[in-house]
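Table S2 (continued). Query chain:
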Amino acid sequence: MPRRKATREKGAFKTSLAGALTNVRNSLHLFGRDSGKTTGNLVISSNVSLGETKPSDPGVAVWFVWDGMQVCIPVDRYLTVEANLQAIHHIIEARRVEMRHGTLALVRASFTGFVALPAPATPPHWREVLGIGPGVVETKAIIEDQFKRMLKKNHPDMPGGSHDAMAELNQAREDALREIGQ
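Corresponding output:
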């Protein structure tokens, strides 16, 4: 979703940050109950640091999983984090109204606009790629030996090897050597 470019609004919400957080959590719980589909993996994100009262970016995003669908509801329309959170609470409540007066299919369709992109795949740690267990004290010699051993399996010219596997192996070697200061 595009970020807000116009001046942010004050908003007419009269809630504290704690109250808005509670409202979002409660709305999600009730939405799950009403739909018969649990909500889980809740993440509430903003650029606010602890103790900061007026962040330059008060935008908030709420991620969760509902009925196997990864959902993200971002709001940065208002001047405060609590107002943006309260707006998300009202968006979830609107889905509850759809549930009461419409159908599950209607709610599912309305959530398609909030489908979150999947999280990027986290590459495996260099120890996993090189086959070096956590108890081994890593040295340049051990890393190079394991690299050569894995090279025989992952090289594109070898059966089962590929360019992608080789690139991952090269990256793991580079990461390992950097981590031990070589």
